[in-house]
Amino acid sequence: MATFLYKLGRLSFRRRHLVALIWVALLTLAGVGAASAPAAGNSSFSIPGTEAQKAFDLLEQRFPGTSADGATARVVFKAPSGEKMTDPGNKATVQDTVKELSDGSEVVRVTDPYQAKAVSKDGTIAYAQVSYKVSGMELDDAAKDALKDSAQDARKAGLTVEIGGDALQAVPHTGSSEVIGIAVAAVVLVITFGSLVAAGLPLLTALIGVGIGVSAITGLASALDLGSTTSTLAMMIGLAVGIDYALFIVSRYRAELAEGREREEAAGRAVGTAGSAVVFAGLTVVIALVGLSVVNIPMLTKMGIAAAGTVAIAVLIALTMIPALLGYAGRKVRPMGEKGKLLGRSKAQDKAAEPARSAKPNLGTRWASFVVRRPLAVLLLGVIGLGAAAVPAASLELGLPDDGSQPTSTTQRRAYDLLSEGFGPGFNGPLMVVVDAKDSDDPKAVFTETGDEIKGLKDVVTVTPAQPNKAGDTATITVIPGSQPSSVTTENLVHGIRDAGADIKADTDANVLVTGSTAMNIDVSDKLNDALVPYLVLVVGLAFLLLIVVFRSILVPLKAALGFLLSVMAALGAVVAVFQWGWLSGLMGVEQTGPVMSMMPIFMVGVVFGLAMDYEVFLVTRMREAYVHGEKPAQAVVTGFRHGARVVTAAAVIMMAVFAGFIGSSESMVKMIGFGLAIAVFFDAFIVRMAIVPAVLALLGRKAWWLPKWLDRALPNVDVEGEGLRAASGDDGDRELVRV
Predict the structure, then answer these.
(1) 508 near 437, Cβ under 8 Å?
(2) Phi, psi for 57 (deg, rounded to 5)
(3) Residue 129 is inside which H or E element, if any?
(4) Contact present, 268 and 7 (Cβ < 8 Å)
(5) Bridge-partner residues for 165, per DSSP?
(6) Range with lowest mean pLDDT among 172-181, 256-265, 480-489, 567-576
(7) What separation in angstroms does the CA of 614 have from each of 33, 308, 551, 608, 646?
(8) Residue 724 has what pLDDT?
(9) Is pLDDT of 440 > 80?
(10) Residue 739 has pLDDT above 60, yes or no
C-alpha cells in the first residue's frame, strides 16, 4: 500500500499539470451537468415493508386519480374576539376565500368548512382544506402566491388566517453560519501551518471535491429522486473530511522536508505514509455511510451513498491533487526554519535556534507524558465525564418533524396551534384507516364493524363514516386521536387499531391498515430501532476487521470501537438536552423543542463511527510507527502525540467548525445533524482519542500490540507505517521528525 501510494504521489508531483487539468475538467463537467439537469422534485419518502406504506400504496391502486401524494394546505380562520365564524359577515368572507382558492389550475378540490363541518364547537375557528395535483416542492410559485393572497384578503376582512400543510414547503437554506465555519477552518489552518499557501491547499482541494460531489448529486437529483437534504449532508461531510485528509498529507510533507528530503521525494513519502492512513480512514467512513442501506429506508440509503461518494472523491483528491499542488507551491510550504533562510537567516542561526526549539517539548508531548504517568485517573475521569453527558439519552423520544416542530414565527406553526385550540391536540395527527374488503363476502358490514371497533378504543375523539371507493371493496376511515401526534398515547392507539384489525381479518378476511403521517412516523421509529443492532454489527464488525489489518492488533481496534460507543452515546445525550429538553436552545437557534428525529440515532452511529476512526487511524498509526521501530509502549504513545497531536487537534477543530456551520440551517433535520456531529467530534477527538486512548494504551503496555502469530501470517501486510519505503531507501527509521 505505502509503496503504491508513494509512486502515485511522486507521479502526481511530476505530472502536476495533467493532474490539475483532470480535476478542473471533472469539476467543470459536473458543474455543467448540474446546470443543465432538470430541477429535482420533492423527494419521495417511502418506507418499504411497513404497514403505513402498504396502506398508502393500496390507496393509489384503489382510489386512482385522488392525487394521494399531492400537496395539501389547511387554511385556518379565527374570528375576531367576541365574534363567531358562523356570523354572516365572517361566513361570507370564508366562502369567498374558498371560491378564490378553487380557481387554481393545480387545485384538485377545496372543502367548504360549513359543508364539511370543519368549524370548532365554540364557533371561533374553522378551516378549509386545499388539495393539489402535485407535491409541495413541485407546486409552482403562482399557486403558492394565490394561496397567500387568498389568506391576505381574508385578513383584511378582519379574520386571523394561517396556512398549514406542505403546500408552502420551501427549499431549506443553511444561512451565513456555514461560511463562518469555513472561515474558522481557514484561521485554524493558518495558525497550524504558519503559511497562507500551506493553509490554502486543504481548503482549495476540499472545495473542489465538494463542488464535484454536490454538482453530481444535483445533476442526478431528478433521475434518482434525491432530496435537498442529500446534497447538504454530502457538503457537510465532504468539506470536513476533505480539509482533514489534505491537512494530514500537507503536514507530513512539511515533516519530510524538515528531514532534508527533496520536494518530489517528500511528496511521495507524504502520500505513502499519511496517504495510507487517509485511505483506511476514508474506507471506514465509506463503510459506515454505505452501511446505512441495511435500514432499507430509501431516503437514508441515498443520503448515505451520496455522502460516501463525496468522501471517496475527497480521498482521491488528497492522494493526487495535493501532491500536484505542492509541486506548484514550491518552497512556500516549507517549515518555518526553512522560510527563515529565505529571509536572510544563516545556517549558524538555525543551528543555534534548533536546540532551543527541541529542548522544550511541545504541548502534545507534555500532555501524553502526563497521561502515561497517571493513566488510571485520566481513564476514569474521561469515562465518567462521557457517561454523565450520555445520561439525557435515557430520556430519548423519537419522532419525525411536523408543523408542530416549526418555529412559532411561521404561519405553519400558528395554523397548527389554532387547530389544536379549536379541535383538540390530536386533530393535527389524524389516522387514516384503510379497510381492504375485497376478499370479504359483505364489504359494507366490514366497514361498519371496523368503525364500531375503533370507536370503542381509548383516546379516540372522532371516527368518520367509511368512505368506499367506486368498486365498493375498499374504504377509508379517518380517526382523530385525543392526544398530540408525537405522544405515547397516540402510538398506543395505532397499535390498538392494528390489534383490532387482526381480529377483524380472522373473522372476515378483510385487511385493516393504518396510515397517515403519524402512523408513518411510528413505523419509521420501529424500523430504525429494529435495524440499529444489525447495523452496528455490520459496520463496527467490518471496520473492526479493517483496523486489525491496519494496526495488526486485537485490543487496539476493540478499544477504538468501545471508545466510539462512549462518544456517540454522549453526543446523543447532548442532542436530547438541547433539542428535546431545551438546554441552551436559544444559543443554538432552536425555537421549538420536541422529539429527536427518528433517524438521528442510527445516522449518528454511522457517521460518527466513520469520523471517529479517522482520528484513531491518524493518531495511533504514529504510535505504532514508533513502537515497531523499537520504542517502549509508553514512549511510543508520547512519540505519537509529539508528531500527531497538534495536527489531529487542528483537524478536529476544523471538522467541528464545518459541522457547527450547519446549525444555522432553516431545516430542523440539518440543524440537528450539524450540532450532533460537531459535539460528537469534540467528545471523540478531545476526550476519547486524546485522553482515553493513550491512557488505555499505557495501561496495556505491550499487550496492546499483541496479535496471534497465525493471524499475523494470514493478514495482508498493508504497510501503513511506510516500513517498505524505509527499507528501500536504507533509512534506519530512528531519526526524529521536528515539530512543524
Answers:
(1) yes
(2) -65, -40
(3) strand 125-132
(4) yes
(5) 73
(6) 172-181
(7) 32, 14, 13, 10, 15
(8) 63
(9) yes
(10) no
Give which of 614, 556, 657, 544 is closest to 285, Cα–Cα: 614
Question: Tell me, what amino acid is at 681?
Answer: V
In 3D space, the residue among 13, 187, 247 whose CA is nearest the CA of residue 740 turns out to be 247
How many angstroms separate the CA atoms of 440 and 501, rounded? 14
**CB-based contact 618:281 (threshold 8 Å):** yes
Question: What is the pLDDT, as a whole number, of residue 721?
Answer: 59
C-alpha cell at 597: 428525529
Q: Please state, in angstroms and as integers, the Cα–Cα distance from residue 731 to each residue in 251, 276, 739, following that order.
A: 20, 19, 20
Average pLDDT over residues 372-389: 94
Q: How many CB atoms lie within 10 A of CB 462?
A: 15
Residue 111: strand, helix, or coil: coil
Alpha-carbon dihedral 65, 71, 74, 75, rounded to 10 degrees: -100
621 SS3 class: helix
Name which residue leads in pLDDT, 34 or 566. 566
C-alpha cell at 322: 495535493
Q: Quote the pLDDT of residue 41.
A: 52
Say how far apart CA 426 and CA 422 lie, in whole Å: 11
Residue 462 host element (H or E): strand 460-463
Q: Under a CB-based contact definition with an 8 Å cutoff, are residues 133 and 113 in contact?
A: no
Mean pLDDT to the nearest integer, 422-448: 88
Rounded to whole angstroms, the Cα distance separating 674 from 195 reads: 29
Cα within 13 Å of Cα(469), Cβ side: 19
- Across the strands, what pairs with 398? 596
CA distance 722 to 740: 20
User: What radius of gyration, in Å, describes the C-alpha atoms of the chain?
Assistant: 30
Residue 255: CB atoms within 10 A of its CB come to: 22
Give the separation between CA 681 and CA 610, rounded to whole angstroms.
11
Question: How many whole angstroms separate alpha carbon 272 and alpha carbon 267?
Answer: 8
Q: Long-range contacts made by residues 394-398, C-beta under 8 angstroms, separation at least 24?
A: 395/576, 395/580, 395/581, 396/572, 396/576, 396/580, 396/596, 396/601, 397/486, 397/580, 397/595, 397/596, 398/525, 398/528, 398/529, 398/595, 398/596, 398/597, 398/598, 398/600, 398/601
Q: 718 vs 66, which has greater pLDDT?
A: 718
DSSP 298-313: HHHHHHHHHHHHHHHH
- Residue appearing with cell numbers 510533507: 253
Nearest-angstrom CA–CA distance, 261 and 283: 30
What is the DSSP code string of 308-332?
Answer: HHHHHHHHHHHHHHHHHHHHHHGGG
Per-residue pLDDT tens over the stretch 262-274: 889 988 988 988 8
Task: Using a pLDDT cut of 70, give the percent of the chain over it.
Answer: 88
> Are 581 and 593 spatial neighbours (Cβ–Cβ below 8 Å)?
yes
Whole-angstrom Cα distance, residue 663 to residue 666?
Answer: 9
Q: What pTM, to 2 d.p., does this model score?
A: 0.77
d(CA 650, CA 192) in angstroms, rounded, equals 7
The dihedrals phi and psi of 176, each to the nearest 5 degrees, come to: -75, -15
Stated length of the chain = 740
**CA 733 from chain center: how many Å?**
41
pLDDT single digits (tens) 137-187: 667 778 888 888 888 989 998 999 999 887 776 655 555 556 777 788 888
What whole-number distance in Å separates Cα of residue 280 and Cα of residue 83? Answer: 69
Hey, what's the cell of 421?
385550540
Q: So what's the pLDDT on residue 48?
A: 78
pLDDT at 359 over 60: no
Q: Are 490 and 481 within 8 A, CB to CB?
A: yes
> 648: closest CA among 675, 623, 677?
623
- State the Cα–Cα distance between residues 35 and 28, nearest whole angstrom: 11
